[in-house]
Design a protein that fits this description.
The chain is an alpha/beta fold. It is about 15% helix and about 25% strand. Helix 6 crosses helix 7 (about 215-225).
């Protein structure tokens, strides 16, 4: 009989709609981050660094890129005979088939997978946060307190607390009450969506609440455990943690990597972040190129100037092009004489000669001002921008565009240009 002390269930099915065109064809955890990584690399690396060698990854929305990236788990040393990493999509059952309808429903539909490892503890993780955390320390805290459920929390400024699930604790870190996005918060300990459950407690809570529509941890499972007297504890985390759920927070988190002393260090020897890497030649920097405060991925060729930017792998930046405060993802080509300012350019984009991104006055985006804002220009994957085009701030372009798509070679600030057939 297999027996694992703790297994992890990683929720990676999210669409990430607030990332706009970046997630139109891939799940949020598969989005590039920090040049050569993808968002899901962080929780997966945390697992193996914490000694958790059995991880179920629950996928749903546009999973192809994610599945290909994870493969059989070799980069994270998760290609194990017993355990390792398993991708768990929703599947057809004999009686009824359903999509995962809520975070806990997704876990409920995989009870048989968890049962097969006969675990004592189950660690629930989300696939879309950037952080480093030793789950073993959290497990020790869980055991020492005789907890049945431990929720990782982090202190947030009181004025931001109403955006989170808030835990109210006593002096021993025991949770006495919790509030979901309270108007008048009584504490500033925000749930990070990271939970350790005793397997028996979790299984019972899932089976007895299975009929709840959109079965969710915050709304159903944790209130049920609390109501039935299970000891709940809050484990306080004080490290770097970033939810990269909006284009602005995603842009900021990438920019924080290039601070002189970055708050989040990708290159610590004792806590490696692993990823699937293609074998690429080293970066080529032309004699006239200039690079300041930037990360440049392997296989990239820089002939122009790059300032305060995160450049992916296999990117070409032509002569006379200046890139500032931008994120350029893998295999994108920016030809010569371009000016790129505060842009997020997705993978496999071609930007032809003399294109300017991020020009003019800022105006709110015409279709999705809640997504495209803070002056950022966003270009979706596989897009083509013809030569001699200028594009304003808070604008978005997605698809293979031609000169006819632009009025006199200009797309004003706040405009949305998505070619038919490219939004799926």
């Amino acid at each position: 009989m297999i027996k694992k002390e703790m297994i992890a269930m990683l929720l990676a099915g999210g669409q990430g709609s607030r990332l706009g065109v970046l997630t139109s064809r891939m799940a949020k955890p598969a989005v590039s981050f920090g040049s050569k990584y993808r968002i899901i690399d962080f929780p997966l690396s945390n697992c193996i660094n914490s000694g958790v060698d059995t991880v179920g990854v629950l996928t749903q929305y546009q999973p192809l890129r994610l599945n290909t990236h994870i493969g059989i788990g070799i980069p994270w040393d998760l290609d194990r005979n017993i355990g390792g990493v398993t991708v768990l999509p929703p599947y057809e059952k004999s009686s009824n088939s359903e999509w995962y309808t809520g975070t806990a429903n997704a876990i409920y539909q995989n009870i048989a997978y968890m049962e097969s490892f006969n675990p004592e503890y189950v660690l629930i993780l989300s696939g879309d946060h950037i952080y480093k955390m030793d789950y073993e320390v959290m497990l020790n805290f869980h055991k020492q307190n005789g907890a049945e459920v431990t929720i990782a929390v982090m202190p947030v400024p009181m004025e931001e607390a109403k955006r989170f699930g808030i835990m109210i604790t006593d002096e021993n870190h025991k949770i006495v009450d919790f509030e979901e996005k309270p108007e008048h918060p009584r504490s500033n300990l925000a749930s990070m969506g990271i939970y350790i459950f005793n397997w028996k407690t979790l299984k019972e809570a899932l089976l007895l609440n299975a009929e709840q529509p959109g079965l969710d941890f915050g709304k159903h499972v944790i209130p049920y455990c609390h109501k039935n007297g299970a000891p709940l504890y809050a484990y306080e985390f004080n490290g770097y943690w970033k939810d990269v759920g909006t284009l602005n927070s995603y842009w900021e988190a990438n920019m924080e990597l290039i601070d002189i002393v970055p708050e989040f260090n990708l290159y610590e020897e004792y806590w490696n972040i692993y990823t699937k890497c293609e074998i690429l030649p080293p970066q080529y920097l032309a004699p006239d190129s200039v690079i300041e405060r930037s990360i440049v991925g392997e296989g990239s060729e820089i002939y122009g100037q790059v300032y305060n930017s995160v450049i992916g792998c296999g990117v070409v930046i032509g002569a006379g092009t200046v890139v500032r405060d931008s994120i350029i993802m893998n295999s994108t080509t920016i030809q010569s004489g371009c000016e790129i300012s505060k842009a997020i350019v997705a993978e496999n984009v071609v930007i032809n000669d003399n294109v300017k991104l991020g020009v003019g006055e800022e105006k709110p985006n015409e279709t999705d001002p809640h997504i495209y804002n803070n002056g950022i220009v966003t270009i979706g994957e596989n897009s083509v921008i013809p030569k001699d085009i200028s594009i304003g701030k808070n604008s978005v372009v997605f698809g293979v565009t031609t000169a006819q798509d632009y009025d006199n070679g200009y797309l004003p600030s706040g405009r949305t240009l998505i070619k038919a057939g490219d939004e799926q």
